[in-house]
Design a protein that fits this description.
Blueprint lengths: L1 H21 L1 E10 L4 E11 L2 E7 L8 E12 L1 E6 L13 H14 L2 H17 L2 E6 L7 H10 L7 E4 L3 E3 L20 E3 L3 H13 L5 E4 L9 H13 L4 E5 L2 H10 L3 E4 L5 H10 L2 E3 L5 H6 L5 H15 L18 H6 L2 H6 L4 H8 L1 H6 L17 E4 L15 E4 L2 E5 L1
Parallel strand pairs: 1-4, 5-6, 6-7, 8-9, 10-11, 11-12, 12-13
Antiparallel strand pairs: 1-2, 2-3, 4-14, 14-15, 15-16
The structure holds zinc ion (ZN).
Zinc ion binds next to loops.
């Protein structure tokens, strides 16, 4: 009889302490909601098992909860970068030209091991998270599925990093994104790409990617003289959908952007040269623009100086038209004194140059990106039921957007990554 009593009380004590230990309470001096562009003052956010359970003013904080005091800071949802290449570090020698850039991409593809590429991914994922990016869509160029390994390692808690939705190998017409490949080594760009030229090859390429852990499909529409057709894009989109995956399409030209939009992709990547009618078509079809809007610095590093004014002008027109926009950077170079995170967050300066309002910039980095990724019910907002992916800044970004370049607090899935 006595033994039974001890057993019950031990269970009771265990339950009481474990429940109390699991609750975290954040005191937010200011809480920004990007969706509405409003700020609420003196809010309490309660977090349990990695998720937000309650948000409001003057909420009772349970006894034994861990309290994080951000009463002097502005709190907002973690950021998204929906166009990353975490497992790729290009050494561009300060922008010696696009040809040299492509050569260094070929070198990374042909020479680096997939093992090393995944370690690059671990370092870049850590740095992205420290800059406030709690979710990324990683769109390929990751050796032989280094991105799947990285995603799994983060999901398993082996290494810190954002939630990763990865593309695996990029599906493209013959030759991938390389020009002048030697005929003796036509496979030199494999396994980074899957060449697919017929409908059967396209369907198989999608299935192969899904089998090896891809969570989004990335295609290249217009990097060779022979483009994918609207019918090709439809074939890929349909096959991807059977596996529950969306399609992101690399399109540098206006023609490519139009084909991708008509073919029903979820997002057009780059669209450097998209005309206003094409941006209108994207809006009509609900296709996101992921502009990878190179800053002056990034354009120069990539040997693509002329691209910066193009993207600023195109961004301006996209917002005039009302094309949905999600924040994506395409940073894949290294620069001394910077991290992948600081280089990526700097891309907000292109939005500022295009006259985009702070509220809209924050929306591109949170709610819009979440919608593109089909995560709008679980990430991208601070509300009950959402993942506890939370950042804080010293000033209110609705008043001074530049403050997001220096987050002082990052929480991912309820775990504090930094608090300085
Ligand atoms: Zn890219």
């Amino acid at each position: 009889m006595k033994k039974t009593w001890i057993w019950f009380s031990a269970v009771a004590v265990f339950v009481a302490t474990s429940v109390a230990a699991q609750v975290t309470a954040i005191r937010a001096g200011q809480l920004v909601d990007p969706a509405s562009g409003t700020t609420a003052r003196d809010q309490v956010i309660l977090i349990e098992a990695g998720k937000i359970t309650a948000v409001g003013p003057g909420l009772a904080i349970p006894a034994g909860a861990t309290v994080v005091d951000l009463s002097k800071r502005t709190v907002l949802p973690g950021f998204f970068d929906v166009h990353t290449h975490l497992c790729l570090n290009l050494k561009t020698q300060g922008g010696v030209g696009l040809q040299e850039l492509l050569r260094s991409l070929l070198a990374a593809t042909a020479i680096e091991t997939t093992a090393y590429r995944s370690i690059e991914g671990v370092a870049n994922a850590r740095d992205m998270l420290r800059s406030g990016f709690t979710t990324v869509r990683d769109v390929g160029n990751a050796g032989n599925y280094a991105d799947t390994a990285l995603r799994r390692a983060i999901e398993d808690g082996l290494v810190p990093g954002p939630t990763v939705v990865n593309a695996g190998r990029i599906i493209a017409p013959y030759g991938g994104q390389y020009h002048g490949i030697p005929p003796e080594r036509a496979d030199i760009t494999l396994p980074e790409y899957l060449y697919a030229d017929t409908a059967d090859e396209m369907r198989k390429a999608v299935r192969e990617n899904i089998a090896f852990g891809a969570k989004v499909i990335k295609i290249v529409v217009d990097d060779q003289p022979y483009l994918y057709s609207v019918e090709d894009v439809r074939t890929i989109v349909k096959e991807a959908a059977t596996g529950g995956l969306k399609v992101a399409a690399h399109c540098a030209t206006d023609a490519g952007s139009r084909i991708a939009a008509e073919g029903g992709v979820a997002s057009v990547e780059h669209a450097y040269r998209a005309t206003t009618p094409t941006l209108e078509l994207m809006k009509a079809k609900g296709v996101f623009l992921v502009g990878t809007d190179f800053t002056t610095v990034a354009s120069h590093e990539m040997g693509m100086d002329e691209y910066h004014p193009w993207v600023v002008d195109r961004l301006k027109r996209a917002y005039q038209v009302g094309t949905p926009v999600a924040f994506g950077t395409d940073v894949c170079f290294v620069k001394e004194g910077e991290t992948r995170g600081t280089l990526s967050i700097e891309f907000i300066t292109s939005f500022v140059e295009a006259g985009v309002a702070p509220k809209q910039i924050l929306q591109a980095m949170t709610v819009n990106a979440a919608r593109l990724m089909g995560m709008e019910k679980v990430r991208g907002a601070i509300a009950p039921g959402f993942a506890a992916d939370i950042v804080a800044t010293s000033e209110n970004p609705l008043e001074k957007i530049d403050t997001v370049r220096h987050v002082t607090f990052v929480m991912k899935g309820g775990q504090v990554i930094r608090n300085d």
